[in-house]
Amino acid sequence: MADKKFQAMIVKEDENKQFTREICEQSISDLPDGDVLIRVSYSALNYKDALSATGNRGVTRKYPHTPGVDAAGIVEQSNVDSFKPGDNVIVTSYDLGMNTAGGFGQYIRVPAGWVIPLPKELTLKQSMIYGTAGLTAGMCVSRIIDGGITPDSGDILVTGATGGVGSMAVAILAKCGYKVIGVTGKSAETEYLKKLGAADIMTREDATDSGKRPLLKAKWAGVVDTVGGDILATAIKSSMHNAVVACCGLVASPDLPLTVFPFILRGISLIGIDSQNYPMTDRVSIWKNLSEKWKPDALESTGHEVGLKDLNPKIDEILKGRVKGRIIVKLDDQ
Ligand SMILES: NC(=O)c1ccc[n+]([C@@H]2O[C@H](COP(=O)([O-])OP(=O)(O)OC[C@H]3O[C@@H](n4cnc5c(N)ncnc54)[C@H](OP(=O)(O)O)[C@@H]3O)[C@@H](O)[C@H]2O)c1
After folding, report:
1. Alpha carbon of 33 to ligand 1 centroid (Å)
2. What domain range is 14 assigned to?
């Protein structure tokens, strides 16, 4: 194949150590080696992409770089038998968009071990409405279910509820029959959260206890936390006996000001979620559930589509916690 040109967002560091973002022409030969070359139809914006796009070395060590931890598209070339040109596929996380050129470009080339066939019940666009956020939310829900928490066990709290992971968690839990309470800083989005399936809403202030008591009135049978800090600590202190708390994010804070009392007096389990290195067999099982029994009726309404050229301001918005649902990036008609 001739060295095809394509469009990609390139993040560069200038001589004053400032990071800039531009849509540039790239060549297939600029991509890293890999088994599968994929023409990207859709990507999506995650909080981690915004960190990569603003020079966060904890996410991306070397620049210039193309972010985008999520990509869905069509195989163009493959040197493995498991994928053939024309196959619809999904790639999320591993090193995509971190130190491997990611989904904010019209082509990616990746190891075959990162690629999942698109489940037949999902479109490429729907798979990116889920993306890493949906996979992560699905992992949290799976751990709550595996921990023996059923809809009869009690209410489930979801923090950062209007965000990508939060919206997906609210919608999936509601689809599974749980009564979901969403914590949000966006009081104007109550209707949005109720349409996703939330039974009720709490403000961030109401979800934060600044007192020193090690335990609070037990309210939650399960928690999906995307924010960390005082809100997560309050959620754990307010959880019931044997509750399962799945912790995946830190947009509020990486700190966790707690004692051990919730764990030793109430048997609460705090479960860490790492979607990046989640084993492929477990990923396939989560994607199967996302495409079948967990698929929310309101899935499409959580996705807001933009082109690559309109992505830049969304990156600043997600860092300020202003994004609602999922920003989907359409790559195939730039
Ligand atoms: N562990 C993993 O594998 C994994 C995978 C994916 C994402 N993550 C992490 O999960 C977190 C959420 O990711 P995302 O892509 O869903 O981000 P997002 O779309 O920006 O959602 C985060 C939401 O958190 C709330 N929020 C923002 N700032 C806050 C603050 N200071 N205090 C309390 N709440 C705040 C906002 O929702 P409201 O306005 O509704 O409160 C915001 O929309 C990030 O830390 C991300 O890195 C981890």
Report:
1. 32
2. 5-118+300-330
